[in-house]
Amino acid sequence: MNKLRIGYIPLVDAAALVVAVDCGFAAKESIDVELVREVSWSNVRDKLNIGLFDAAHLLSPVAIASSLGIGHVRVPIIAPFNLGLNGNAITVSPKLYAGLLGLADGNLADPIVSARALARLVEERQSRNAEPLTFGMTFPFSNHNYQLRFWMAAGGIDPDEDVRLVVLPPPYMVESLASGHVDGFCVGAPWNSVAVDSGVGRILHFGSEIMARASEKVLAVREPWANENPATLSALIRALAAASGFIADPNNLQAVSTAIAKRIGVNAELVARSLSGGLKIAPDGTVRTDSRYMMIGGDGASRPDPVQAAWLYAQMVRWGQVGLSEELLDLSQAVFRPDLYDEALGVAPAPDAVEPSDRIGTFIGSGFDAADVASYLSAWRTKRPGRPRLSVVR
Amino acid sequence: MTRRQECFAYGRAPCDGGAAAEIVTVAETRKGADQPSHGAQPQGGPRDSSLKIAIVDESPIRAAILEDGLREAGFVHVEHITETHNLLARVYAIDPDVILIDLESPSRDMLEQMFQMSRVVKRPVAMFVDQSDSASIQAAVDAGVSAYIVDGLKKERITSILDLCISRFNAFSRLQTELDRAKDALDERKVIDRAKGVLMKAKKFSEEEAYALMRKTAMNENKKIVEIAQSVLTAAELFK
């Protein structure tokens, strides 16, 4: 048996790893996986980097940032399997929700309506010198950060100037919202549901309403490790693919939810809600359903898509985390390895997802073109150039 | 997955204040080889004593041990940041040259945000552990600690700090392991004593006879005495 140590953060989107290990798919491929629970993305990244972990459940943008050497030392990471698409949500305090409701010129379930309402609220607060609104997200290199920014900017807000964005560990989110430390946050499952259930928050948008397909977490391995252990990696990919297929079948919802709930320490019903995409969004029991809310296994979600990597790189450039160059774009795309996925599963390269047509599907703006990131980004150029692009927390 | 681990990583609240969670994590991260626990000396002359050091650790005992060690080594500006709530604001207020953080603190991700602000913050902070020194990275991670330093500070200047940090973290984990063992032993004694009491009362045994019977039974059944004692207590409970 090949023994592997794999680090993960207790979130629903670690599902494929949990099910692979706890439901026997890894054993079937003769790999013996020890899943090691971690408390911070920094730890997961560092332990993967220095070889304490063979593989990890990692934020997709962290895999890219690590390979580019931004924000940290450069360690080439590859992502041969996509653990999940989407799965985040933006949750706001009842007070902020009421404020948005009063300023909305339409249905707040529409992200452009909510973004414009937020911009009006921000302006109103600035006019009376009120403290800026504060939003929590999980890591500088995360979809949570990029989704919040994309949404806010669509309404005309400069996320670096007009609001505060702060990193908060997911387990602290609900408490921070309850205490008023933040007015809203973007986080993965199950934390939005925890906030709704405890009556301190209301889900405003699913991440999938901001963008239809976003690579959320990948299976990350060091590139040299992948080169030295091709057979083991292939076996791991097969185990994860089988587990993801099992998760995607609604008949297995209960078994899957129970396994994940046991690992991450919440009740299974909460996990089932996230996996099925039917989330209670308000304390009054209102449910919103979106089959794209969290995509694991189905609809080509498992195969790494370099267009997704290019999109994430474009977000890093847009928000000033890294410069724009063809070389960095190529390096970013090379992190996602559909070739290793295809090889492990012995399948012909899958056709690209047909819907959305640009494979990202943002709620506003022209389609994304990985071949011309510069033009794509120029459309988003802020009206107020020359400012520091990153938020300061004081 | 033990319940204690779940408790630790998922709900900080139930574990706060108790040393239990820390014991689990420190013991987990600890690996084998005992290292000499003292002997770190400040290097590079008097300039280093002026370095400002911030400690982010949710274990007050371990933070105190580390703080003492740093002071003994001649560092006078040492501060322990206890609140996670306003971590970054505190860091800015202290304006440290070196930040030492417990790897089991989820707050670590909050510190990472500072790298992203390097262009607008006066004193950028960078990760100390770079690829060039994998032995010390390993040692630090094994001990359960990580360090950040102000960009531009020479690595040699903080080697002594990191060494000291690693040795104190390891010393702390040894201490906790010993405490754990002592506590387990104490618990075992209590169970055995109560079982002796039950046997003495039920069979009119002397204390020695009661112990001898349990000892003999344990040997015959290839079990620990404490297990037999526990069975006696369980049985006594059933016969009540």
Structure description:
The complex is a heterodimer of chains A (394) and B (240). Chain A is an alpha/beta fold. In chain A, 44% of the residues lie in helices and 17% in strands. Chain A has 18 helices and 13 strands. Chain A has a six-stranded mixed beta sheet, sandwiched between helices. In chain A, helix 1 packs across helix 13. Chain B folds into two domains: 35-177, D-Maltodextrin-Binding Protein, domain 2 (3-Layer(aba) Sandwich); 185-239, Arc Repressor Mutant, subunit A (Orthogonal Bundle). Chain B has a five-stranded mixed beta sheet, sandwiched between helices. In chain B, helix 8 packs across helix 9 (207-221) and helix 9 packs across helix 10 (225-239). With 240 residues, chain B is an alpha/beta fold.
Number of strands of chain A: 13
Within CATH, the superfamily of the domain at 2-84 and 215-275 and 298-351 in chain A carries the name: Periplasmic binding protein-like II
Order of helices and strands of chain B: HHHEHEHEHEHEHHH
CATH architecture of the largest domain in chain B: 3-Layer(aba) Sandwich
The description of the largest β-sheet of chain B is: 5 strands, mixed
Note the gap between the termini of chain B: 36 Å
Helix share, percent of chain A: 40-55%
The whole-angstrom Rg of chain B is: 24 Å
Strand order of the largest sheet of chain A: 2-1-3-10-4-13
Considering the chains and any ligands shown, give keywords for the structure.
heterodimer; A: 394 residues; D-Maltodextrin-Binding Protein, domain 2; six-stranded mixed sheet; five-stranded mixed sheet; globular; B: 240 residues; alpha/beta; Arc Repressor Mutant, subunit A; 2 domains; 10 helices; 5 strands; elongated
